[in-house]
Amino acid sequence: MMADFILRALIAGLLVAAIAGPLGCFVVWRRMSYFGDTLAHSALFGVAIGLLLDVSLELTVVLACLVLAVLLVLMENRRELSSDTILGILAHSSLALGLVIISFTDNQVNLMAYLFGDLLTVSSNNLIWIGAVVILVLGILIANWNKLLTITLHEELAKVEGLNVTRVRLLLMLLIALIVAASMKVVGILLITSMLIIPPACARRFSRTPESMATLASIIGCISVCGGISASWFWDTPPGPSIVVTASLLFLVTRFGGLRKTA
Amino acid sequence: MDNQTLINADNISLEIDQRQILNNISLQINAEQIVTLIGPNGAGKTSLVKIALGLIKPTTGSVETKKGLRIGYMPQRLHIDQSMPVSVERFLKLAVNANNSEINNALGEVGADSLHHSQLFSLSGGELQRVLLARALIQEPQLLVLDEPAQGVDVNGQAELYRLISDIRNRHQCGILLVSHDLHLVMSATDEVICLNQHVCCHGHPEQVSNDPAYLELFGKKDAETLAVYTHHHNHSHDLAGGIVDKEGKSRSDHDG
């Protein structure tokens, strides 16, 4: 009954939303949303390299994001420029470089698909790739959950207590890089960060433990995916942006509901 | 380094951006000894603590630590982002996978039983300090490092907190490295005072230090001793009740006598 492409879109969206919830909590707690944005911009650079070399785009996008994440960790210790400025430089120069490189390739490239997602054309191969990344990230996230919480609460305390803070921080950045790469097809480069921060922001006021916030964020992300794909099905709206709009509406509802409660 | 020495820092200097932060400082902490670092803001107290803890590397000098030393560290502040929902209990559990009875004991010891289920970000300054102290205690530390533990705690609470710290030393038999920006409150509890202003101005027993010209110059330029207390409490002047001045006067006359 339901068209295959919609089913694939739904599964891809739900997979990404499920993992973006808990991972996004760390983005919110550690105020890394600009970091997510920077990674997302560098993904287009990865796309450009992939097109230029005619190799798998998934591979080059992941590599571009990972390289950028490592670069940022290395640059973090230099204090002449604020990390805010460094992120801005890296984000926009990698995006611009990506666009310039794409102009040299012969392919007719549908830029919109990369910028805003192309959920309805998700192939079985895409699905396998997204699924593999999500399972990998979920496993690493669960295995390191307490360590990640510890460094988020106080890095120096964690270090004195014997944790290798740099390694855990790098791990978190790499996980975010992987998810950014995996969700490019779902919501697109320009909207990826919203999937990381809006669901946790919705979940915050209903949560009293880190775990409940993470779980609820996953659920809210999945509701947004269902809502966005439904909108796309019934009104022919672009699915990626529709998912983000749904999430934003949920955010407004949770905020508005709160205002009435306290009034 | 003998068996009693927990940390031995030798000839430590620290330079950041060609600015001298610490100049040739040696520091030794022995088991069951309370060492207090005092000095004005910007004297390099926190930098020295971080070097002793191995959090930053000194430009020159070396730090030796007793093998397998368990350190309980209470940082100067813990900024909890409101966006993170986490209870006191959970925060303490994260320390060393502590079990419930260990958590109860530690909270009871610092007088914070009622905070068990409170959200971390909702605590007052003083409550948060107690919770941090509880976390440091859960590790059964051989050395407690407390960086300005009384910050954000009102005056009554400060006296109580220092009493608590001195109790803890007796009960846990651990060494304590304490950072403070005033001497009189920590006086009774301290074995050794190091007065720091980029270099070691003077050191010794608290009574000795409080009469040392270098200490008086650093803290009491305005010649009257009570005034020194005042300038010292500049940040907290709104908290300063008459009571604390009396207390100070009394403890001083003890020492003069």
CATH topology-level fold name of chain A: ABC transporter involved in vitamin B12 uptake, BtuC
The CATH architecture classification of chain A is Orthogonal Bundle
Give the amount of beta strand of chain A, in percent: under 5%
Strand order of the largest sheet of chain B: 5-6-7-3-8-9
Low-confidence stretches of chain A: none
The low-confidence runs of chain B, each spanning 5 or more residues with pLDDT under 50, are: 222-257
How many distinct folded domains of chain A?
1
Q: What's the helical proportion of residues of chain B? A: 25-40%
Instruction: Report the biggest beta sheet of chain B as strand number plus sense, adding barrel if it closes.
Output: 6 strands, mixed
Helix content of chain A: over 70%
Number of strands of chain B: 9
Counting DSSP H or I runs of 4 or more residues, the number of helices of chain B is 9
Radius of gyration of chain B: 18 Å
**Oligomer status:** heterodimer
Report the sheet-strand fraction of chain B. Answer: 15-25%
Structure description:
The complex is a heterodimer of chains A (263) and B (257). Chain A is an all-alpha fold and 263 residues long. Chain A has one domain: ABC transporter involved in vitamin B12 uptake, BtuC (Orthogonal Bundle), CATH 1.10.3470.10. Chain A has helices at residues 4-29, 33-53, 57-75, 83-104, 111-116, 124-143, 145-153, 155-160, 165-187, 192-204, 210-235, 239-262. In chain A, helix 1 (4-29) packs across helix 10. The longest helix of chain A is centred in the N-terminal third of the chain and has 26 residues, at 4-29. Chain A is globular. The mean pLDDT of chain A is 88. In chain B, strand 6, helix 5 and strand 7 (175-180) form a beta-alpha-beta unit. In chain B, helix 2 (88-96) runs parallel beside helix 4. In chain B, the strands form two sheets. Chain B has a six-stranded mixed beta sheet, sandwiched between helices. The interface between A and B is medium-sized, with 23 and 25 residues.
